[in-house]
């Protein structure tokens, strides 16, 4: 062990003065036996047998538990729907941000072309008075025609892809109708007598 000796002592007003501290070893120190960790009172463990007793549930806790069990399918459904719609919403938000950035730095002549295409859609809507089918066909047709005048390469690609899809859909529809026709009208029991009862 070391003993600290202070050389200079002064009043409180002289506390800013420096002083020297010397450490010296005690001459009368004797070797003491070391103490084991288990002998320290800090680490002693009482040998009392403890038993966990669960407190009885109150009526409020029971009702909250029943409410949670009742709402569990709905919350899991909501979490599932959120996990399914989150990527779609993020892509939609990203598309909106990209569109906003494109419109902020639009190429020259974009807005007049957009105006002409929109005006063609309005003209198609005005010409489609009276018929619901015309209202579905004329405005997109006129807008597509106006857009194809300004963007011919994209219009050709669009027509090719949509033509292939329409042909595929038509072929599938033809196959379905042919199967239904064969099932319903070519069975021997379903053929009706053309003479009929008089």
TrEMBL record:
Cited Pfam families: ApoO
GO biological process, alphabetically ordered: cristae formation
Compartments reported by the entry: Mitochondrion inner membrane; Mitochondrion membrane
Transmembrane segments: 110-128
Swiss-Prot/TrEMBL keywords: Lipoprotein, Membrane, Mitochondrion, Mitochondrion inner membrane, Transmembrane, Transmembrane helix
GO cellular component: MICOS complex
Claim: Zinc is one of the keywords in the record: no
Family: Belongs to the apolipoprotein O/MICOS complex subunit Mic27 family.
Functional note: Component of the MICOS complex, a large protein complex of the mitochondrial inner membrane that plays crucial roles in the maintenance of crista junctions, inner membrane architecture, and formation of contact sites to the outer membrane.
Subunit structure: Component of the mitochondrial contact site and cristae organizing system (MICOS) complex.
Name the record gives this protein: MICOS complex subunit
Taxonomic source organism: Myotis myotis (Greater mouse-eared bat)
